[in-house]
């Protein structure tokens, strides 16, 4: 440009035409430059990538809906929040995001990510929030959590996970909130959650869990909220909730529970825990009524939706609120018990009376024989 200007300044008649041509060139060049520059949003000084909006003063880089099918390469290094949601990403290779190592928040929801390679986030030692919801992730391998020691919030809702393994959350020492809502999780290995000693919320709603085995929540000492609603849970181990000494809310609504044992909830050694149980097909018999009666008497447990519990069985009680029928259930049961008791007592009494009569008859018989045989002994009879 300086050469151009120099030449333009040499103003002599013969050069007039040349000058005009040069101006034209200059204008063209400027046009091209501004078009080029337009693709780099210069809103706050730093370079930004096409399709992104960089707000350097906030350290935000927003590339949401930018049509990316690969990770953009040169992102502004000071970025602390990177929003790549609503794109077409499919794969996260190892050591992704190497240009933005100061990230604290990484939003990747609503892409088509199916493969997260080992160590994909391993450079993000400051990352606190990772949103991977609404993707196609079907497995979490051991290397998934490498380097994520600062992560507090992991959002994996609406993916395709079917099982959780011992190594799924290995390195997440600081994790406080884990959202696994709306996957297809049907099995959880016993020690899957054990690295998560800081976890406070575990959202497992809308999955396909058929039961809860003992030990699956061991080590979750800080857990305050456990959302298990809308699964297929039929059975829970008596000891499964025992390790959850901070639990304040246990949501088991809309499962397949037909009955539950008193011990299962009594083993919760907490200060106070609210339990939600509606939408289960309860078998309304006297045993269940007794369990609930005992649960009501435990001061630290609150059955918040007890009024909404309804019977699934027997057929004639289907849909009836449990709270309304349970007294009748036990009245019927009490009558049955009474009838049985009366029957048993009558039988026993009858037997005793019969036995007594028999004994007397025998004695009398013996008396007469004794009288006949030895009259001396009659003093002792
Ligand atoms: C968990 O994810 C689901 C689905 O995206 C969402 O509705 C819910 O609000 C999330 N829960 C929390 C506590 O973030
Ligand atoms: C009970 O069910 C009603 C109607 O579905 C609902 O409005 C209410 O919030 C429920 N109560 C509890 C404690 O869940
Ligand atoms: C998987 C998924 O939820 N995709 C959605 C991403 O967002 C667009 C609109 O922003 C939706 O149309 C997709 O269904």
Automatic annotation (TrEMBL):
<dbReference type="Pfam" id="PF13855">
    <property type="entry name" value="LRR_8"/>
</dbReference>
<keyword id="KW-0325">Glycoprotein</keyword>
<keyword id="KW-1133">Transmembrane helix</keyword>
<feature type="transmembrane region" description="Helical">
    <location>
        <begin position="335"/>
        <end position="355"/>
    </location>
</feature>
<keyword id="KW-0812">Transmembrane</keyword>
<keyword id="KW-0675">Receptor</keyword>
<keyword id="KW-0472">Membrane</keyword>
<protein>
    <submittedName>
        <fullName>Reticulon-4 receptor</fullName>
    </submittedName>
</protein>
<keyword id="KW-0677">Repeat</keyword>
<feature type="signal peptide">
    <location>
        <begin position="1"/>
        <end position="34"/>
    </location>
</feature>
<feature type="region of interest" description="Disordered">
    <location>
        <begin position="362"/>
        <end position="381"/>
    </location>
</feature>
<dbReference type="InterPro" id="IPR032675">
    <property type="entry name" value="LRR_dom_sf"/>
</dbReference>
<keyword id="KW-0433">Leucine-rich repeat</keyword>
<dbReference type="InterPro" id="IPR050541">
    <property type="entry name" value="LRR_TM_domain-containing"/>
</dbReference>
<keyword id="KW-0732">Signal</keyword>
<dbReference type="GO" id="GO:0005886">
    <property type="term" value="C:plasma membrane"/>
</dbReference>
<dbReference type="InterPro" id="IPR001611">
    <property type="entry name" value="Leu-rich_rpt"/>
</dbReference>
<dbReference type="InterPro" id="IPR003591">
    <property type="entry name" value="Leu-rich_rpt_typical-subtyp"/>
</dbReference>
């Amino acid at each position: 440009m300086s050469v151009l200007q120099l030449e333009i300044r040499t103003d002599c008649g013969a050069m007039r035409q040349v000058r005009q041509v040069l101006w034209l060139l200059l204008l063209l060049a400027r046009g091209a430059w501004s078009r080029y520059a337009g693709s780099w949003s210069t809103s706050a000084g730093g370079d930004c990538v096409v399709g992104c909006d960089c707000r350097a003063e906030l350290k935000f880089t927003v590339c949401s809906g930018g049509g990316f099918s690969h990770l953009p390469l040169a992102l502004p290094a000071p970025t602390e929040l990177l929003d790549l949601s609503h794109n077409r990403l499919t794969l996260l290779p190892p050591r992704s995001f190497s240009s933005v190592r100061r990230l604290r928040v990484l939003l990747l929801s609503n892409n088509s990510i199916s493969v997260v390679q080992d160590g994909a986030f391993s450079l993000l030692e400051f990352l606190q929030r990772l949103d991977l919801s609404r993707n196609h992730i079907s497995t979490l391998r051991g290397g998934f959590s490498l380097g994520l020691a600062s992560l507090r919030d992991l959002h994996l809702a609406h993916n395709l996970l079917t099982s959780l393994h011992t190594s799924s959350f290995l390195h997440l020492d600081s994790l406080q909130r884990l959202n696994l809502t709306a996957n297809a999780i049907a099995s959880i290995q016993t020690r899957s959650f054990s690295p998560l000693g800081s976890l406070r919320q575990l959202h497992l709603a809308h999955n396909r869990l058929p039961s809860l085995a003992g030990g699956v929540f061991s080590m979750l000492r800080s857990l305050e909220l456990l959302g298990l609603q809308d699964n297929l849970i039929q059975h829970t181990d008596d000891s499964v909730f025992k390790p959850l000494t901070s639990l304040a809310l246990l949501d088991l609504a809309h499962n397949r529970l037909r009955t539950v044992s008193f011990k299962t909830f009594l083993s919760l050694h907490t200060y106070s825990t609210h339990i939600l149980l509606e939408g289960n097909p309860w078998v309304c018999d006297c045993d269940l009524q007794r369990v609930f009666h005992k649960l009501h008497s435990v001061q630290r447990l609150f059955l918040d939706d007890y009024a909404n519990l309804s019977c699934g069985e027997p057929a004639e009680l289907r849909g009836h609120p449990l709270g309304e029928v349970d007294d009748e259930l036990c009245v019927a049961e009490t009558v049955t018990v009474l009838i049985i008791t009366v029957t048993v007592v009558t039988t026993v009494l009858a037997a005793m009376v019969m036995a007594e009569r028999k004994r007397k008859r025998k004695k009398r018989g013996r008396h007469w024989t004794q009288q006949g045989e030895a009259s001396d002994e009659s003093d002792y009879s």
